[in-house]
Design goal:
By secondary structure, the protein is of the alpha/beta class. The protein has 15 helices and five strands. Helix 8 packs antiparallel against helix 9. The longest helix has 17 residues.
Length: 307
């Protein structure tokens, strides 16, 4: 694989939240997020700047970490089971946390206690987290596979979509994935204060964890899917820049082939949901039998999630 092609693949896989190849400076610059994207129905801009956020405030929009948001959503928070609401300011989700100075100061105002990084070593080497002072960093690699094999099997946009669907199925079937998610959910349950978890793009591994958390809270499936799809709004500018770079360097056909890796599609998350239903029946059974979480842990997490 040439270095130029490796840079392209690395950029794509960073954006796709899969495995990283070598990523050169030019490709990385094109993939960097810029200004926050336009709003969507479930997405309202939160407070920015460097001041501390108030209880119940929306997550701040970060220009340099464009997929950072509150698991609970915006406004009053997502409606949960039994007339409850998902608690805001408890769990945040993100892409790689590499903020500029202004965004780092904004993150410091959230009083985060712990950041969980779901990436593997190669991904971390390319973009190491930059966290506010005092935030505990925990790496829980949640991925298995080979980048060369992944790339070699993608020849068309349909291949790329199929690869993303298969990756979500592996959130259910993969031993490495299940072990990582079990460790993360246990940490989220037993650690105090506001916490954030993330992968590279904040959409695939991070999206699956968010699906589990919102399911535990009893959020409606349609709301969970809408929340999942918000990645396409939050990272719109980044995706446009990445596609423009690919078109310029490799042409329209290459851009069309790789585009499905950059965002999310209903069919991606649905593939994982369908696999969970086929293998375990319910989310609670997946948590108990697939991840090995105790009823006490699941109940504590449910209590922590809602009010």
């Amino acid at each position: 694989m040439s270095r130029h092609h490796s840079r392209i693949c690395g950029m794509l896989l960073l954006a796709g939240g899969v495995l990283l190849a070598e990523l050169g400076g030019a490709g990385l610059a094109q993939a960097e997020p810029t200004a926050p994207p336009a709003s969507a129905p479930l997405f309202q801009p939160g407070p920015g700047g460097n001041s501390k956020t108030t209880p119940g405030a929306d997550a701040p929009r970060l220009a340099s970490v464009d997929n950072f948001r509150d698991v609970a959503g915006t406004g009053a928070g997502y409606p949960a089971a039994h007339g409850k609401t998902v608690n805001k300011g408890v769990f945040y989700r993100s892409n790689a946390i590499v903020p500029n100075d202004a965004d780092l100061a904004t993150l410091a105002g959230l009083s985060l206690t712990t950041a969980y990084d779901l990436r593997g070593p190669d991904e971390i080497t390319q973009k190491q987290d930059k966290l506010p002072a005092g935030v505990n960093y925990v790496n829980i690699p949640v991925i298995a596979g080979n980048i060369d094999e992944f790339i070699a099997n993608i020849h068309t946009p349909e291949d790329a979509r199929a690869a993303m669907q298969d990756g979500n199925r592996k959130n259910v079937t993969g031993a490495t994935e299940r072990a990582g998610y079990a460790t993360l959910l246990t940490g989220l349950t037993n650690t105090g204060g506001a916490q954030v978890f993330h992968c590279s793009a904040g959409k695939d591994r991070t999206g699956w964890v968010t699906y589990l958390l919102l399911s535990i809270a009893g959020v409606a499936p349609t709301t969970i899917m809408d929340d999942y799809l918000l990645t396409n709004e939050y990272t719109k500018d980044s995706m446009i820049k990445t596609l423009a770079y690919i078109k310029q360097s490799q042409g329209e056909a290459a851009a069309a082939k790789w585009e499905p890796l950059l965002g999310v599609d209903k069919s991606y998350l649905q593939a994982g949901i369908d696999q969970l239903a086929a293998d375990y029946g319910t989310v609670d059974k997946y948590l108990a039998d697939g991840l090995g979480l105790s009823p006490d842990t699941i109940n504590k997490l449910r209590v922590k999630l809602t009010h």
